[in-house]
Structure formats: structure tokens, C-alpha cells
Design brief:
Elements lengths: L6 E5 L3 H13 L3 E5 L2 H11 L3 E4 L8 H10 L7 E6 L4 H10 L3 E4 L4 H26 L1
Parallel strand pairs: 1-2, 1-3, 3-4, 4-5
Helix pairs in contact: 2-3, 3-4
């Protein structure tokens, strides 16, 4: 059974890539939403509050960097896990990802097991951090 804490939004303008990543994540127990562009991703994120977003940098409307900035500006998504899966491999691209608030910059081709591991580690760390904060409030 999946929960909202395991919802992943997959954003890629390539139909096959987007569907494949979503299907594979779904097979691993994640609830998935898909978007072909940044505008659609923002609309979905506002209503579905993903725990993680897998995003391509080269999107047709806004690039993945701007999408990351806008996602982090949405109430409740300030700490959403954002993973870029992209063909942009230079150190400058990696710095741009970090500056935009992207947590992980993975260069294509990406092994699916590595992507799943990054998502799992990041979400586990986020849950632990939230649990620690809740304990301190009590």
C-alpha cells in the first residue's frame, strides 16, 4: 500500500521516458504522477504534494532549474526531494542544479536501481528529520 509520503512526480517531455520511470516506480510501490512540462508539474504538485520529484532539466516551457525553484516556493513543498535525471553532465550544470535547490543531479543514462536508491535514502532521511522535529516539539 502506498501513502502520500511515497508519492513521486515524474517530469519529462519524452513520453517513453516519463511513462517508463513512472511504471517502474509504481512497481516498487510508489504512487506516481506524471507531467510532460513544468507548467503541468506545478499544477499537479499544488494538489498532490509529492514527496519526491524526478525532473529532466530540458523541458519545453521552463527548464528544470526554474521548476525546482518554483516547487520549493510552494507551501508544503519547501523540502520536497528533487532529483534531476538529465543529459547535462558538466560541472556547471551540476552547480546550477545545486543553486536551484535540486538535491541530486544524475546524468543519463541512469541505472534505475540507483534512482530508486536515491529516492529511498532521501525520503528516509526526510522522515527521520521530521520525526526528530516532532519529538523535540513534544
Amino acid at each position: 500500500m502506498t501513502t502520500e509520503a511515497t508519492r513521486v512526480l515524474v517530469v519529462d517531455d519524452n513520453d517513453d521516458t516519463r511513462e517508463l520511470v513512472a511504471d517502474l516506480l509504481g512497481a516498487r510501490g510508489y504512487a506516481t504522477d506524471i507531467a510532460p512540462d513544468a507548467t503541468s508539474a506545478l499544477a499537479i504538485a499544488e494538489t498532490r504534494a509529492p514527496a519526491a520529484v524526478v525532473v529532466d532539466i530540458g523541458l519545453p516551457d521552463l527548464d528544470g532549474y526554474e521548476l525546482a525553484r518554483r516547487l520549493r516556493a510552494l507551501p508544503g513543498l519547501e523540502r520536497v526531494c528533487i532529483i534531476a535525471v538529465t543529459g547535462h553532465a558538466s560541472e556547471a550544470h551540476k552547480r546550477s542544479s545545486a543553486a536551484a535547490g535540486i538535491d541530486v543531479h544524475m546524468v543519463k543514462p541512469v541505472k534505475f536501481a540507483d534512482l530508486v536508491a536515491e529516492i529511498a535514502v532521501r525520503l528516509s532521511a526526510a522522515r527521520l528529520s521530521a520525526d526528530t522535529a516532532d519529538t523535540r516539539k513534544s
